[in-house]
């Protein structure tokens, strides 16, 4: 077999930028590669925990402010919905005996500390009479809220427990209610 003749060398110079393959940057040295791969054996958990704690605190504060303002997405399931908002506004628009339970109980406790049995006896009698009036106010408020909600939303769409929800809100002092009262006294919802 005969050898084929070798091709003649091409005398045209080759431009290295025209060679289509390449990564476009210099190969990093071994020291640079090792430095890039270095990371601490134990991650810096103090900074990560502090950052996570700060983010969680910011989220909680945002949720607390949103819940106090009555924003629907921050409310617990118990308080969500247009009927619950209606019941809250209805209760917040009126005056209720239940708001005075805590101050009245404080007065009764102070009267029972006195060594005079006359004051102790009548303080307890007054407390039980007051509690009966509060229960009556809760029942009346529950009936009024359910009736007003029935007129507004329709009887078939009335949520279960709406009256109880309103009655429980009457027992809380106005400044302690969550979500906060959105209406002034006397501004009953339509």
TrEMBL record:
The keyword DNA damage does not apply. Residues 1-50 are annotated as: Disordered. Keywords: Membrane, Transmembrane, Transmembrane helix. It comes from the Bacteria. The chain crosses the membrane at residues 93-113, 119-140. Residues 1-10 have a biased composition (Pro residues). This is DUF3043 domain-containing protein. It comes from Microbacterium testaceum (strain StLB037).
């Amino acid at each position: 077999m005969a050898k084929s003749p070798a091709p003649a060398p091409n005398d045209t110079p080759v431009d290295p930028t025209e060679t289509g393959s390449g990564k476009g940057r210099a190969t990093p040295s071994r020291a640079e590669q090792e430095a890039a791969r270095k990371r601490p054996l134990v991650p810096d958990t103090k900074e990560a925990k502090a950052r996570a704690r700060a983010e969680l605190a910011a989220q909680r504060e945002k949720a607390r402010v949103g819940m106090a303002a009555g924003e629907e997405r921050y409310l617990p399931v118990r308080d969500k919905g247009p009927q619950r908002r209606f019941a809250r506004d209805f209760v917040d628009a009126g005056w209720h005996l239940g708001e005075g339970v805590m101050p009245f109980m404080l007065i009764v406790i102070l009267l029972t500390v006195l060594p005079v049995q006359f004051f102790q006896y009548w303080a307890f009698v007054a407390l039980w009479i007051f509690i009966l009036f509060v229960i009556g106010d809760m029942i009346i408020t529950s009936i009024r809220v359910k009736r007003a909600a029935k007129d507004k939303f329709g009887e078939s769409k009335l949520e279960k427990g709406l009256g109880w929800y309103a009655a429980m809100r009457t027992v809380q002092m106005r400044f302690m209610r969550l979500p906060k009262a959105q209406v002034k006294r006397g501004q009953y919802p339509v």
